[in-house]
Amino acid sequence: MDLRELLEEVKNNKLDIDSALDKLKDFPSEDLGYANIDHHRQIRNGYPEVIYCEGKSDEHILGIIDKMNQKKSNILGTRCRKETYDKIKEIYPDAEYEELSKILKIQNQDIINLGKGKIVVVTGGTSDIPVADEAYYTAQFLGNKVERVYDVGVAGIHRLLNKRDIINSARVIIAVAGMEGALPSVVGGLVDVPVIAVPTSVGYGANFGGLSALLTMLNSCASGISVVNIDNGFGAGYLASMINKLD
Amino acid sequence: MDLRELLEEVKNNKLDIDSALDKLKDFPSEDLGYANIDHHRQIRNGYPEVIYCEGKSDEHILGIIDKMNQKKSNILGTRCRKETYDKIKEIYPDAEYEELSKILKIQNQDIINLGKGKIVVVTGGTSDIPVADEAYYTAQFLGNKVERVYDVGVAGIHRLLNKRDIINSARVIIAVAGMEGALPSVVGGLVDVPVIAVPTSVGYGANFGGLSALLTMLNSCASGISVVNIDNGFGAGYLASMINKLD
Amino acid sequence: MDLRELLEEVKNNKLDIDSALDKLKDFPSEDLGYANIDHHRQIRNGYPEVIYCEGKSDEHILGIIDKMNQKKSNILGTRCRKETYDKIKEIYPDAEYEELSKILKIQNQDIINLGKGKIVVVTGGTSDIPVADEAYYTAQFLGNKVERVYDVGVAGIHRLLNKRDIINSARVIIAVAGMEGALPSVVGGLVDVPVIAVPTSVGYGANFGGLSALLTMLNSCASGISVVNIDNGFGAGYLASMINKLD
Amino acid sequence: MDLRELLEEVKNNKLDIDSALDKLKDFPSEDLGYANIDHHRQIRNGYPEVIYCEGKSDEHILGIIDKMNQKKSNILGTRCRKETYDKIKEIYPDAEYEELSKILKIQNQDIINLGKGKIVVVTGGTSDIPVADEAYYTAQFLGNKVERVYDVGVAGIHRLLNKRDIINSARVIIAVAGMEGALPSVVGGLVDVPVIAVPTSVGYGANFGGLSALLTMLNSCASGISVVNIDNGFGAGYLASMINKLD
Amino acid sequence: MDLRELLEEVKNNKLDIDSALDKLKDFPSEDLGYANIDHHRQIRNGYPEVIYCEGKSDEHILGIIDKMNQKKSNILGTRCRKETYDKIKEIYPDAEYEELSKILKIQNQDIINLGKGKIVVVTGGTSDIPVADEAYYTAQFLGNKVERVYDVGVAGIHRLLNKRDIINSARVIIAVAGMEGALPSVVGGLVDVPVIAVPTSVGYGANFGGLSALLTMLNSCASGISVVNIDNGFGAGYLASMINKLD
Amino acid sequence: MDLRELLEEVKNNKLDIDSALDKLKDFPSEDLGYANIDHHRQIRNGYPEVIYCEGKSDEHILGIIDKMNQKKSNILGTRCRKETYDKIKEIYPDAEYEELSKILKIQNQDIINLGKGKIVVVTGGTSDIPVADEAYYTAQFLGNKVERVYDVGVAGIHRLLNKRDIINSARVIIAVAGMEGALPSVVGGLVDVPVIAVPTSVGYGANFGGLSALLTMLNSCASGISVVNIDNGFGAGYLASMINKLD
Amino acid sequence: MDLRELLEEVKNNKLDIDSALDKLKDFPSEDLGYANIDHHRQIRNGYPEVIYCEGKSDEHILGIIDKMNQKKSNILGTRCRKETYDKIKEIYPDAEYEELSKILKIQNQDIINLGKGKIVVVTGGTSDIPVADEAYYTAQFLGNKVERVYDVGVAGIHRLLNKRDIINSARVIIAVAGMEGALPSVVGGLVDVPVIAVPTSVGYGANFGGLSALLTMLNSCASGISVVNIDNGFGAGYLASMINKLD
Amino acid sequence: MDLRELLEEVKNNKLDIDSALDKLKDFPSEDLGYANIDHHRQIRNGYPEVIYCEGKSDEHILGIIDKMNQKKSNILGTRCRKETYDKIKEIYPDAEYEELSKILKIQNQDIINLGKGKIVVVTGGTSDIPVADEAYYTAQFLGNKVERVYDVGVAGIHRLLNKRDIINSARVIIAVAGMEGALPSVVGGLVDVPVIAVPTSVGYGANFGGLSALLTMLNSCASGISVVNIDNGFGAGYLASMINKLD
C-alpha cells in the first residue's frame, strides 16, 4: 500500500492536508449515481471489466459501458438480452455476442494468456450447455485455454470414461449438471485437480429450480469439489481463471 | 373372489342371510382394539407377517406377535429395539435378531424360495449398511437369493466398475446411498433391470436428513429407477421381492 | 463382454495396439458435439431410442432423430412441443403425435411384445390424464399390453372398488395422482404386484407443484410401492416395462 | 351485551363515571402477572377451563389450577408431564391422568352432556393413538359421547370398510393419521358429516415431523374436511365438541 | 344399505346370481371414460353436483354438465374460466356466472334451505374477496343464509369489533385472510361457534403463495378453528354448509 | 380517549343512550363495502392516507381515492400500475407518479416536516433501486429529509467506506440489498443508529425470491438491526418515519 | 474523525510516520486470539459491553470478562448457562443472574438513564416469557425504563385491550409471540410508535421452530413493524434502546 | 495410463490373457467387505489417507487404520470421537488428537511441503473455530503453510481491515462463518485469490442449521468464491491444498 508514500508527501509538504484527506477517500471507484464502477480491478489483475446485465435497464448498461470504454478496458457482459446487444452493437460495432449463453464481449485490448494450464468444462446433458458456455466464454475472455466436453452424464458412465484423456489434461475442471447433479462427484473421483461444480436449473418435478442438483453437489463425497450458485456459469469461469493463473 | 360361491350358497339355502351378511363383512383381519392384524396376506402371497415395531410399546408388540404366532406364520419385525428383542427372546427362544439393521425374525415355517432370480444390494458407503442390511434381511426372509456389494460409491467409480459382474447378474437391484445419493443413477445406466433407490439419512450439513439423496434419486436421468422413502430398507426389500417373484 | 476376444486378437496380431486402444474407447455412443447418442441400448433390450425433447432446440432434436433414424430404430420422443412435431412430420411423414401427453412416435420397426403380463394405469382424477397417458403410450411403445382406469380417486372409494377386476388382472400397476396423492396406498393394499406411484403437479394451494402428492407416496404405509419424480409418466412407463419383461 | 344497562345506570346516577370507566375495562379475565385466566368462557359455554401445560413450569401450572379451582370449574390439562401430575395429585387427590395422551382431569362438577350426537375418532395406525386419545378424552370431558375406531389405515381398505356402521353413526368424525395421512380423504368420501383431520408426526424419512400428512390432508379432494395442526388432538376434540353442540 | 334386500331377492330367485354380482358392483357412479360422476351424493344430501373446472378442457366440462343436467340436478362449477362460461351459456341459457369468484351456477331445481342458522364470511382485506366470494356463493347455492363482512383485518382491530353483532349472530364462521392470516385467531377468540379458516395467497415477499397465512392459522392458539387449503373458498363453503345443516 | 366526555354527556343528558351506543361503535373508519377506510390515522399522526394498490381493481382504487380526497388528505399509493395512474391522472391532474418505484402521490396539503433528523437509504446494487426508491419516496412524503447512497455493496467494501460521512449523518438508516444481503450487517457495525434492513428479491439461483437475503439479515450479528418483508420498501420508509419523528 | 489531527501531527513532526501508520491501524479492538473485543463501542454510546455466551467455552467467557472488567465496563452476558454463571460468581461476587432469561449482569458503573421514554414489552403467552425477559433485562441494563405486559395474546383480544393504557404510554414496543405470532399486527394497529416484533420458537406441530410466527410478523399488514430473529430477545432490547435514546 | 504397456506385454507374451483380464480389473482399491480402501490416491498425490469417522463403529475405524498403517501412509481422521481416539492411542501411541476440531493424525512419514504459497483461514466469530480448525489441521497435514485469523466478522469491519496484510499474503483463503455468513463476500472483494467459503451451523433462530449462511455464500456478489457443505472444514482444507499445490 502507498499509504506510507502519502504520509511522506504530507510530511515533506508535497501534499497539503486537504488533498491528502481527499486521496485517502479516493478509492478507485467511480460513482455514476446508480452504479459504482471499479476500474482498477481490471488493471490490478489484468481482467476485463464485467457487467451483470440482468435487472439493469438498457440505459444503465449503456452508461456503464461508456465509462468502461473510455479506459479502453475489455468488457464482458453476462446475461445480456439480445435486444440490449442490438443497441450496443450500433454504438460499438466490434461488440460480439454469444446467443446461447447471452455473453457480450467488447474487446479493446489483446487478451493476455494468464492461465497456466487448461480449463475443461464438462456437462451432464445437452440442456446444460447455456450455463456451461457462460463459463466457457468467461474463462476464455479472461485469458485461458478452455476445452468443452458436453453431454457425458453419469447415467451412461462410459460416455464420461471415453473422455478421460481430456479430463485428465485439465488444471481446473468446471462440471455443470442439472437433474440429479451427480457429475462433479464422479469427475472429482477421477482427477486430482480442483473441480468447480455448477448446478443448473435444468430438470422438472422435484428438481425445484436446481435445488436438487445444488444439494447433491454440496453433499458430494468426493474431495476437491466446491460449488457456485445455480446457473452461475460466470462465477465458475471467473473462479477457474483465478485458480488457473496462480503460479 | 368367492363372492359367487357365497351367493350360490345363499340361493341354495346352504347359508342363511344373516350369516351371509356376516361373512360379507368378514374380511380376513383380526381386531385387537389397538391393532388390526391382516393374517391372510401371508397366506395369499406366501410372505411372513410383518410388524413395524417403531412407536409401538413392548406390550403391543408382544400382543401382536402372540396372535401371529398362533397361526404359525413366519414373523418379520423391523426397527425392533434391542430391549424389545430381549423380552421376545424369553418367550420365543427361536427368535433371531440382526443388531445393525434391527431386524427381528421368528421362523415358524420353512422359507420357500419365491424369487425367480437374484437381488443385489449395493451401497455407496460403509455408513449406509444398516439400511442396506434391512433390505437384505427382508428380501432374504421373503424367500430370495440376495447378494451384497457395499462401499462402492461414485466418487471412486472404479470400485463400482470392479463389481460389474455381480451387478450384471441381478434380476433386481437395490441401490442404497446417502450424502449425494448418485449411486442409483450410475448403476441404472449400467444395467437393464429395475433399480430400487433407497436414500439414507447419512451425511451432514445440507444433507437435511436424507432429503438431498432423495431429491437426487427422484431426479435421476437414468431410466428404470424408482425411489422409496428415506432409510426405508424394508420397503425396498419387500418391493424387490414382489418384482423378483413375478413369472 | 468381448474384452477377451479383443485381447486374443491383440495377442494373435490380428489387431494392432493402436486399433485396440481405439476399440477399447469405442463404447457404443455417438458424439454429435452437443449430444452423445447411445444406439446400442435399443439393440440390447429391444427398446426404442428415446429423446427427452424439453429444453432442446428443434435443430438439436432433428439432428438427433436423423442419427437415430439412420439405424432404423423406433423413436420415442417425450415432452415434444406441437410446433416441433409439425417440423418433424414434414421430414418423417409417418411420425405420430399424442397431443395430450406430448408423445412423439416414429415407428421404423414392428413393436415386439416384450411384456409378460398386463400393465394397468390408474389415475385419481381427470386432470392427471396427461401424465398417465405419457406412461400409457411409453409402455405401449415399449411392447406392452396396457389398460387404463381413470378418475378413481380415493375420495369416492367405490369408484376404485368397482374396477377391482381390472386392477387385479395387472402384473404391474402405475398409479398416477395429484392433490393428496393417496391412490397408490389404497391400490397397494388391494394387490400383490408392484405399484409405481407417479405424483402429479395437479392441484392448488399447499400442493406446491406436486410436492404434497410426492411426500404422500413416499410415506405410504402400503408395501410394494415405489415412486418416480413428479409428472414423470415416461419414467413410470419405462420402469413398468422393465419389470413386465422380466421372466 | 349489558352496555346499555351500564349506560342507563350512569344516566340514572346509580353508577358514577369512574366506576363506569372501571367496569368498561372489566373484561372477565384475571391477571396473575405471568398469565391471564379467562373464567367466563367456561360459564358462557359450559366447558371446563383448559391449561396447555407444555412449556409452563410446575409452579405456574399449580398457580393457575389454584385460581381455577376456587371457581369450582372443571379443569382439563393437556400435554401434562407425569411428574407435574404427581405434584398436582398431592394437592388435588381427585385429579385423574391419562398417561398415553398426557391428559389431566380435575372434575369439580358433573359433566353435562352438551353433544347432540356421537363423535367418532378413527386412526390410521396404532402409533397415532396418543394423539387420538387426546381428542377422545377432550371431547368426552367437554360433554360428548365419543367412540374410537383405531388402526384402520387406507393401505388395508377393508379394515375401514368393516367399520362403516360405526363411522356412519357419527355426527362429527375426527380422523387421525400420520405417514401418508390419506385416511380423512377416504372417510370423507364415505360420509356426509364434517371430518376434522389431525395429522400426526408419526412416520420417518420424508415425513418431516408430520408435514407430509398435513399436506395430504390440506390437499384432500374429498369435500367436508378441514385440518388442525400436527398432533393437535385437543384442538380436534374441542372443535368437534363445538360442532356437536350446535342445535 | 339394501344389501339385505338384494340377498333376499337372490334367495327368493327374484334375482339371478349374475345380475346380483352386477348390482353389487353397481355403485351409483357413472363412467364417462375420462370422469366418474357421482350422481347420488346430490340425492343423498340435497346438494348440487359440483365440477372443479380448473385443469379440465371445455369439452370435458360440457360433457360432464350434459350428464348432470339430464338428472335435472343443480350444478355448481368452481374456478370456471370466463371463456368456458360463454360456451356453457350458449347451451344452457339459464347458467349464471360470478366473475370475481369464477363460480358457475345452473339451477334446475329450487334451492332448499338446509341450513339451520347463518353462515358469516369475514375477510382481512379487499384482495381476499375472490376467495371469500367463492365460499359465499358455494354456501348460498347449498341452501344457506350467508352474510359477508369484508376488510376487517386485525391491523385495525376496531373495524372488526364494530361488526361484532353480525359475527355473534353466526352459527358457523368462515374467516378468509392472506398476508399474516391472523384474522381467524381473533375471531375465534370472540365467538363460541366453529371457525373455518381459509388462507389466501394474497401478499408478497415472504408470503410464499399463502404459506405464511396457512401456518399462522394452523398454529392459532384460539380453540375451535380448523383450516382448509390455501384459496380453497369452495371447501370452506361446503364444510360450513355441512356443519350448518346438522340438527 | 374521550370516553369520559361521552359518559359525562350521557350523565348530563346531553346525549341520549341510543346515540351514545351509536357513538361507542363509531370508530373512525368508513365502510365502502369492499374496503374500510381509516381516515383518522392521518389526522392523528399527520401522515397521508395510504393505498396498497396491488391486487385491487382500478374501480376499487378510484373509489377509495375519491373518499380520501373528500377529506383533502394527502394520498400515497404503493405498487400502483402505470395504467391505473393514467386513469387517476385524468381525474386528479395533480397526481404524480414515480415510475421505477410505482409510487403514486396526490398532495392536497403541504407536507409538514415531521422528522427530527435525516433518513439515509443505502443499497447493495443498482437493481435494488426500485425497492429503495419506494422507501425513499414514502419517507419523503411522510415529512422527512431523506438521502440516497446507492450501489455500495459489501463485495467492494471501499465503496461503502467512501460514503461513511453520509452514513454517519443519519438518524435512521434503511439498508436495501438482494443477493447475499450482507449490507445491513456491515452498516450496522459502522453506526450507532437503528438500521432497517430490506431484503430484495434481486438475484438468481439459490436466491429463492429474496429468501436468501432475508435469512442473512435476520441472522445478522450486528446489533440494532431489524428486518421488514422482502421488497417492502414502503414498510421500511414508514417505520423509519415513525422512528424519525420520535422526540 | 480525528484523521485530520493525525495528519497535522505528522505534518508538524509531532508524530513520526511509523507511529502514524500504527495509529491508523489502531482501531479500538483488542485481539485475544480467539476473540476481538470492541471496547470503544461502550464508551461511544454509553452502553455496556456484551458477550453472547452460547457456543463459547467457560474459559473463553472468563477470559473475555476479564479484559472487559479491566476497563470497568458494565458487562451484559446473554444465553449464559447457569454453570457458567456459578464460575463467574466465584470471581466476580457482584455478578447477577436472571435464571429464566439466562441474562448475566456485572455492573461496574451506575447505569445512566439514556432512554427518552418508556419501552413496553408485551407477550402473547406465558411461554414467551424467557425471550421477553431477555429483551426486558437488556433494555433495562442499557438505561431504559421498561414495563412488562404478559399473556395478552390475540385469541382473547379483550385481555390486550384492557392494557391499552400501558401500551399507549410506550415510546417503543417490543411484541413477543410464538404460535401464530399475530400479536405485533394487532398492537401495531393500536399505536403510532415503532413495534419490534420477536417471533419465539414456542408452539408445536407446523410451528417449525418459530418459522410460523416469523412469517406472520414479516407479512404483517400493520405499518411500523419490523422483525428480529426468532427468540432474539436481546436484539429487540438493544434496538429498542437505540430508538429510545434518539433525541 | 499404462494400458498401452499392458497391451504390449500381452502382445509380447509377457503377460497371459487371464492375468491381463485380472489386471484390468485391478484398480488400486482394497475390499474389506464393509469398506473399499483406496491406497493409491495417497501415492498418486502425496497426500495422507483419510477416514471420515462419523457414523463408523470403532471396530471398523480400527480395521481401516490397520490396513492403512501397513502401507506406512500418513493417516488423517476427521470427526473422530474422543473415545475412539483413546482406543486408537493404545494401539498407535504416536497418534495425535485435536480436541476442538476432532482431528486425528497418525504421522508415519515426513509431511512434504506441497503448497506453493500460504493458506489463510479466517472466521467470523469465536464459535466458528471448531470448523475452521478442521480446515486448518487438514491443510497443514496435507503439506501447507497455514495461518489463522479468527473473529473478524463483518459487523465490526475494522477488525477485518486491521488484518489485511495477512489476508493479502494468502494464495488461497478459507473463509468460515455462521449466522449471516457475509464474511466471504467482504474478503472476496478485498483479494484477487480464490476464496473457499465454509458455512457453519453456528447461530440460532432462522439460521436453520447453517442454511442461512450457506445461501448467503452461494448468492455472494463477489467473484472468485465457491462454497463447500455446511461445517465441512475438511473439504475446504482439502480443496485449498489442491489449489495451493498447482504449479
From TrEMBL, chains A, B, C, D, E, F, G, H:
Matching Pfam families: AIRC (PF00731)
Protein name: Nickel pincer cofactor biosynthesis protein LarB
Source organism superkingdom: Bacteria
Record-linked SMART domains: AIRC
GO molecular function, one term: hydrolase activity
Domain PurE residue range list: 117-246
GO BP of this protein: 'de novo' IMP biosynthetic process
InterPro entries from the UniProt entry: P2CMN_synthase_LarB (IPR039476), PurE_dom (IPR000031)
NCBIfam families: LarB (NF033503)
